[in-house]
Amino acid sequence: MIKLGIVGTGGMANAHALAFKNINEVEIVAVCDVIEDRVRNFAKEYNINQIFTSFDEMLENCELDAISNVTPDSFHKEIALKSLNKNKHIFSEKPLAENFPDAQEMYKATLNTNCINMVNLSYRNSSGWQNLSKMIQNNELGPVRHVDASYYQSWLTCKYWGDWKAEQKWLWRLSENHGSKGVLGDLGVHIFDFASYPVGIINKINCRLKTFKDKGEKIGEYILDANDSFVSMVEFENGAIGTVSSTRFATGNVNKLDLKIYCDKGAVSMKFDDPITQGNTYSICTDINATSPNNEKGLDWKTIKTDPTPSNYERFIHSIKTGKNDQPDFKRGADIQKILDSCFISSEKDQWIDLNA
C-alpha cells in the first residue's frame, strides 16, 4: 500500500483526493494546510486521520511514501525540494514552478534520487490525444508541416462559472500581485504541452500578450494587470511552424481545447471541453488523392474512437510500483516553463526568442 500525503486543500485538492481514493493501492494517510479550519474540514470529508498545519512537521512525523502537492504556485518549489530531500515521490500541480530557473532546479533535484516525479498536466487524460500523439511521433502521416492550437474560455464575458467581478476565486487570476501569470500561466501551460508533445521541441517563439484595461483596472485589493489573451507563432525543431493562442474572452466556448496538425500525408484534429468524457475521439484525414473537394466523395475526415487512457494519478502510482517514471515528469514541466518564460520576454521585447540560446 502506497501511503500518500496531500499538501494544500484548495479547490483542486478535491480532485486529487477523489482520484487517489479510487486507486486501490493508495491510502491517503495525512493532509496539510496552513489554514486549520479548512484542513480539518477537508480531512473530515475524505476520512483522513492525520492533520498538519506545517509541512515540515508532516514530513518529520508521518510515515509517507509520496506527496501530492496542491499548494499555490509560489510554494511548488519549496514543497517539491523538501519532499525529494526526504526521498518522497512527488506529484505536483501545474505549473511546475513560477519561472524556468526554479523549475530547472526542481528537475535537477530529481536526478539525485530514485523518486518518481510528475506534474499534473491534466489534459493528458484524453485518450484521443494520447493516440493522436503516438501516430504523429511514429511519423505515420509523414513530416509535420503546420500546427494550430488554441485554448478558449469565456468567463470574462459570460457567467457560466459565476460572476468574476464578485468572486475572489476569479479575481486573483487577473492580478499579478496575487500570483497570477495570466492566461499564459493558467492555460498556456496546458496548450503548449498539448501542441508540442506530439510534434516535438519548439525552437523559436514570437508571442504577444494583451491585458484589456477597459474591463477595469482594479477591484478591491485586486489590480487587474495579468494578461487576458495571448497569440504566438512557433517554429519546431523538425521544421514545422504553427500558432498557439488562448483567451478568456472566447464567447461561445466554455473550456475548449482545439488542436490541428497538418502533415505531408494527412492531418489530424481534435477539440473538447472535458478530456475524459469528450476527449476520447480524434479526427483524421488521409484523403490526399482527392481531385476536388466538391466531388461526390469530398474530403474524407474519419472520427476515431479510442479506449480510455490511465489518468495522471494512475500513471504516478504505476510509476512508483514499477520504478519507471512515466510522463509528464519534472523535466517536461521545466521545458514548458521555459516556453512560458520566453513568451513573456518575446512580448516585452517584441521579437522572436530562440529557446536554445
Strand content: 25-35%
Fraction of residues in helices?
25-40%
Please give the CATH class of the largest domain.
Answer: Alpha Beta
Count, helices: 10
Gap between N and C termini, in Å?
Answer: 45 Å
The biggest sheet, with number of strands, parallel, antiparallel or mixed sense and barrel status, is:
9 strands, mixed
Encode the helix/strand succession as letters. Answer: EHEHEHEHEHEHEHHEEEEEEEEEHHE
Residue windows where pLDDT falls under 50 for at least 5 positions: none
- Arrangement of strands in the largest sheet: 16-15-14-13-7-12-11-8-17
Key descriptive features of the protein:
Dihydrodipicolinate Reductase, domain 2; 357 residues; globular; nine-stranded mixed β-sheet; 10 helices; Rossmann fold; 2 domains
